[in-house]
Design a protein that fits this description.
Layout lengths: L1 H26 L11 E6 L9 H8 L13 E4 L5 H11 L3 H13 L7 E2 L3 H10 L3 E6 L7 E6 L5
Parallel strand pairs: 2-3, 2-4
Antiparallel strand pairs: 1-4, 1-5
Length: 159
């Protein structure tokens, strides 16, 4: 009988350890949230600037500006609604959440004061679109940046 109780304890401990290991994997090693990818504002290689401030990017994405201080006209593009990089971009660079952006553009469209940026299907499509013509600006996560575009603004936008 003692052997059976000891055997049950060993089995219970083994099950407990397996469950703990499974929870660690599922919750990301202790439940800490995974690090979010840094958002990169990218531009065509032929843009006459090597960096942009968060304020300039905000003005371009909110339709308050259509050209750079150099006179270069620009086009900006968005990732689809609900894309995590889009949400991160608007939160970090413009300081707005998805509902605020929807409301902003609904008002601008209704009053005839502008249209929202074009939408590209995914990050690879964004990079291709930016690469294809001068004056194009977009944003992607760090891992999607290629040598075919230049990084104009990194991350938080708190410059």
């Amino acid at each position: 009988m003692i052997g059976t109780i000891g055997g049950a304890r060993v089995l219970a401990r083994s099950i407990s350890m397996r469950l703990t290991a499974a929870l660690v994997v599922v919750l990301g090693f202790g439940g800490a949230p995974a690090a979010e990818a840094e958002v990169m504002v990218i531009g065509n290689q032929q843009l006459p600037v090597s960096s942009l401030s968060a304020q300039v990017v905000a003005d371009l994405y909110l339709g308050r500006a259509v050209q750079l201080s150099t006179g270069q006209r620009v086009e900006v593009a968005d990732l689809p609604v609900g894309h995590p990089v889009r949400d991160e971009f608007y939160s970090r660079i413009l300081g707005r959440d998805p509902d605020q952006i929807r409301a902003y553009w609904a008002k601008r469209i209704f009053t005839g004061k502008g249209t929202p940026p074009l939408v590209r299907g995914d990050e690879a499509a964004m990079v291709r679109w930016v690469r294809e013509a001068p004056g194009r600006i977009g944003y992607v996560s760090t891992g999607a940046v290629t040598d075919s575009v230049q990084v104009l603004l990194r991350g938080s936008g708190t410059e």
